[in-house]
Amino acid sequence: MQYAASLGSIGLLRLLGASWSWSVAAGLGVYLGSGGWRYLYVAVRTAKRDINGLYVLLRVKLALWRYMHNGSTIPSIFAETVARHPDKPALVYEATGETWTFSELDQLCNAVAHWALSQGWGSGDVVALLMESRPLQVALWLGLAKIGVESALINFNLRRDSLMHCLGVSGARALVFGAELADAVSEVNTSLNDSMIRFCTGDLSPDQMATLCAQSLDSVLASTPRHPPPCTHSKGFSDRLFYIYTSGTTGLPKAAIVVHSRYYRITAFGYYAFRMTPDDIIYDCLPLYHSAGNIMGVGQCLLNGLTVVVKKKFSASRFWEDCIKYNCTVVQYIGEICRYLLSQPVRPSERGHRVRLAVGNGLRPSVWEAFTQRFGIKQIGEFYGATECNCSIANMDGKVGACGFNSRILPSVYPIRLVKVNEETMELVRNKDGLCVPCQPGEPGLLVGKINQKDPLRRFDGYANQEATRKKIAYNVFKKNDSAYLSGDVLVMDELGYMYFRDRSGDTFRWKGENVSTTEVEGTLSSLLGQTDVAVYGVAVPGVEGKAGMAAIADMKGNFNCECFLKEIQKVLPPYARPVFLRISPHVDTTGTFKIQKTKLQKEGFDPRVTTDQIYFLNSRAGRYEVVNEEMYNALMDSKVSL
Q1: Do β-strands 240-245 and 255-259 pair in parallel, antiparallel, or remain unpaired?
Q2: 3-class DSSP state for residue 331?
Q3: Fewer Cβ atoms within 10 Å of its own Cβ: the N or the C terminal residue of the chain?
């Protein structure tokens, strides 16, 4: 084993040396060809970062190649992990304090596989999982994968039509649900296909089970064999593992296909890019139906032997106490979690932990330094990526505000690019040859990744819905007849190649001849209001060009002061970025992963008749916010009030 590992390291070093030599030669060629001291300046400033990035890329590439060559799968890699750490804690369930060692987790997975075989399921069949986060959920999808059955990981916050939609697009033959979600299942029970078998885990009365036409899974697994199941499938590294659904912030969720190699790639990038070790203990408070919690988090346990503490539900008040209790060294965040933690009162536990690394995405630049300084976090592992994308990037050196980088010296090593788009329509801008126009540093652009289905790093597997898959692919992007994945997200790259998230597709709007970034305005307003939930979006006003900015602000205490608010925003926001409309609400809706939901807010606009929330309009001539009643609304709609 040690000899093989040494050979692998030597091979990697040779590859790294060869790649670096080639990089230097190519870089010199570009320098001589284009001239200019700025190129040399960038090369010197970014050489160390780029070498580290190249090292991580090669480590992941080599591992992917080896597993592809060996016909590996996630269950077979997990078996190697179990052999290395049979008695080490694998998963800890915070809600009950229970601990599963790697051997115990593997045996439970085997029981799941035997149960699935007894149901007659096999390679390509789909089973939907609907439950709150717990280790059993991991054992279910991993055990099913042992016999080639695919799981559909359903968001446990979904109800009625959205829930039915997700069950339908997955083509699931069975539904496994937690007893805590019996009411959600009851709401759709009569609409479910009669052939869909229901299994419940947890405590329900016999009458409830009968009403839901469900069988108890716990009792079945308790008496099922725990030895390895027979190999009944021929799935490989490029085949489907499970489905993860998009958050549905702009419509019904889409079922993204996760193949075995993608699961490994996401996990491995996080492990190597942020220098984790098997001795780390991860605090995973993210939902396990999501890629951050189930791949970036739990994946470190299954593939790299780390211990993961599974939290049933994120709690800002218990966060640091939990980290101390379980001796965690790594925490995960997503969306607004860091802001929620900052909004908590100061307590001793927030500095008494051993956490050295926070890994996640969506950390706003406006709270980045406040978070690290207050809680004593040495490293932020911010990254950009979606479950299905092929253009993930990572911030490996702690550049404040950046979600990752791409080399300016050799950008083709990792073929991603920011390309120009019409920010209102998100249509690609093309040159006279029909190719996309790359952005220069400082220019916002759509992030795209070149597709190569033969390369696990570059492939795009899309969604269960083929039409949704087609919409995410563009052609003739880098060169003629190529194809690329469209991220739908607008980023900005600086001179050194660091990239900064700007907005999601459709979130930027134009007002008074200027492009307004909703993400930037949200961050500014939230900080101004003490880390309050804020949603910023554009609304159409008849007879007015562009869209007027509107901010939905959470005000649970009912003490929002429009006059003070206006005075403060005049200090920090340019006139075009100041919200024209305000919507003051007890709370602002978010998804299960803390992404603010704007679709409903945008549809309702500033119409006071469709909500009980208080709506205000910025009367610039009077220099104050005024209440929008029905009379004012009609005047705005009839263009009788000047904006």
Answers
A1: antiparallel
A2: strand
A3: N
